């Protein structure tokens, strides 16, 4: 899974029949600290995310199987809206503070 921020919407009046009724959003991938990484991509949203929301995205074959028994032509799916992140980082000891 990947963390990202929704930065826009995509509207397509003509698309594959299986994609009708699905909402498409543009997601900017982020590191846990919020820094942007990689290029934005389009993801399907079925949970009600909107511009500015931090989201969890699954990509690849898992995203294509959102409907039981049907493989949709998508490769990114928003699976959660992030309320908060709690990141703990273990810092390495400074060389000067180590006991030999």
What does this entry show, briefly?
The protein has 100 residues and is mainly β. It has one helix spanning 61-64, and strands at 2-10, 23-29, 41-45, 54-59, 76-81. It has a five-stranded mixed barrel with strand order 1-2-3-5-4.
Structure description:
It is a single chain. This protein has 100 residues and is mainly β. It contains one helix and five strands. It has one helix at 61-64; strands spanning 2-10, 23-29, 41-45, 54-59, 76-81. The chain has a five-stranded mixed barrel. It starts with a strand and ends in a 19-residue tail after the last strand.
Secondary structure tally, helices: 1
The CATH first-level class comes to: Mainly Beta
Radius of gyration: 18 Å
Major sheet details = 5 strands, mixed, barrel
| Structural classification | mainly beta
Judging from the principal axes of the Cα atoms, what is the shape?
A: globular
Give the oligomer, counting copies of the same chain as homo and different chains as hetero: single chain
CATH topology: OB fold (Dihydrolipoamide Acetyltransferase, E2P)
- Which spans of ≥5 residues are poorly predicted at pLDDT below 50? none
CATH architecture classification name: Beta Barrel
Give the percentage of residues in beta strands.
25-35%
State the helical fraction. under 10%
């Amino acid at each position: 899974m990947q963390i990202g921020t929704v930065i826009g919407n995509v509207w397509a009046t003509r698309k594959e029949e299986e994609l009708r009724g699905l909402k498409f959003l543009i997601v900017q991938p982020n590191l846990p600290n919020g820094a942007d990484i990689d290029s934005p991509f389009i993801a399907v949203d079925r949970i009600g995310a909107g511009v500015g929301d931090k989201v969890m995205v699954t990509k690849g074959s898992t995203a294509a199987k959102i409907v039981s028994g049907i493989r949709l032509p998508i490769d990114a799916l928003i699976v959660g809206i992030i309320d908060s992140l709690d990141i703990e980082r273990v810092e390495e000891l400074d060389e000067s503070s180590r006991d030999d």
